[in-house]
Design a protein that fits this description.
With 133 residues, this protein is of the alpha+beta class. It has three helices and seven strands, in the order ααββαβββββ. Strands 1, 2, 3, 4, 5, 6 and 7 form a seven-stranded mixed β-sheet that branches. Helix 1 packs antiparallel against helix 2. The chain is globular, with a radius of gyration of 15 Å. The protein starts with a helix and ends in a 10-residue tail after the last strand.
């Protein structure tokens, strides 16, 4: 598979993943996360695949909006790294989670299929004054 085709497949999977997050489709998410998936939240906490899915299965997590933009995909053989901006509005156990994050998603190919292996979120802040010219 050439790089361009791999990028298209990763982008397609990313769109489907974002739609599943928005709708709380835990069955689809279970099918696209690798068994040893790790999600890292914006405060540094880590969630396993089962913990990630449980937020949707329990109904504790509800999104009103979930979008990705500013996307860039880099493909390396059987792995791909996507960086972008995640903008979300929702609630977790009744607590607002309206925010935007810089996100990194790591995809791997397993048995010819792209899967999501890891995700990392960071709050978007301002560039520190000492780094500006």
């Amino acid at each position: 598979m050439n790089r361009e085709q791999a990028e298209k497949e990763v982008l397609h999977l990313t769109d489907a993943w974002a739609a599943a997050e928005l709708s709380g489709d835990a069955a689809f998410l279970e099918s696209v996360l690798v068994d040893d998936f790790i999600g890292i939240g914006p405060l540094g906490f880590m969630l396993t695949k089962q913990e990630w899915l449980a937020r949707h299965q329990s109904g504790d997590l509800k999104y009103e909006a979930f979008n990705l933009d500013e996307i860039k995909v880099r493909v390396y053989s059987d792995a791909a790294v996507l960086t972008g901006r995640q903008v979300q509005k929702g609630a977790y156990r009744g607590n607002s989670i309206q925010a935007q994050f810089r996100t990194t998603l790591v995809f791997v190919q397993q048995q010819g299929q792209w899967k999501l292996a890891s995700l990392h979120l960071s709050t978007i802040g301002q560039t520190p004054p000492f780094t500006r010219s």
